[in-house]
Amino acid sequence: MDRLRINMDRLRWIRQELSDDYIVVNIAGYELYYMRNRQLQWETPVMVGTIDTRTPIFQARLRYLEFNPTWNAPRSLIMRNLFPKFKANPRYAIDKGYKFYDGKGAEVDPLSIDWNNYTARTFPYRVVQMPGPANAMGRVKFMFPNSHAVYLHDTPSRQLFSRSQRAFSAGCIRVKNPLELARVLLDDPSHWSADSIQTLVDSGAPQQVVRMQRKVDVMLIYWTVSPTSGDRIQFHHDIYQLDPAALAALDAPSRSSGYVQ
Description:
By secondary structure, this protein is of the alpha+beta class. It folds into two domains: about 1-60 and about 140-175 and about 215-250, L,D-transpeptidase catalytic domain-like, CATH 2.40.440; about 70-130. The chain has six helices and 17 strands. The strands form three sheets. Strands 1, 2, 3, 4, 5, 10, 11, 12, 13, 14 and 15 form an eleven-stranded mixed β-sheet that branches. A four-stranded antiparallel β-sheet has the order 6-9-7-8. A two-stranded antiparallel ribbon has the order 16-17. A hairpin with a 2-residue loop joins strand 2 and strand 3. The chain is globular and about 60 Å long.
């Protein structure tokens, strides 16, 4: 019963001015739901952030899709993951499609860098990964601008979708069937059929931006109990261990409960 109480309380935090069409990502359930006219139209498994790089809980408006995206590697990821790989083998950067730029915007050859002069903290270059099969964003990303720099995207690490627990990302949401999500969101068979989307992706044309023509909100939520299509409920692992604090808050005495005789 406590888990039901916790998740019923979380329902109160959903904003009422939600658009009729919206995406719900249940972080704890590793699932994405697309609601059209407030009815479930489509769903797909997702990956979410690790315990150390958690996917945040918030809501924003979907603005555009970008096919064959580039990836501007965040400084935190460069320091934590990429710099050690670049330093150990500078050709790794070339093989994976990374380019380095100095403070003036000039490209720098990774093989020309004296890596012994830098640490992860002092590394001075901006790192951009070009479109391609190794790109961390995969073939498409779904942009809802926000202060967390979190969004939905494809992934080259598709083998991880076979896992039941899928907290693998640096905070963004990796989508199992991203091209189909693009098709249902764009909802324009004459211009954006499955075949036309696949043709665009296969062309390799970089950074093809398609702006949304209708309102679609994106909600990233955290439900450890959620409904199923058969009027049943399912329980999810509390991957970020948020339920204990939520229960303690529910059980705490109300500040307004006292009275004066």
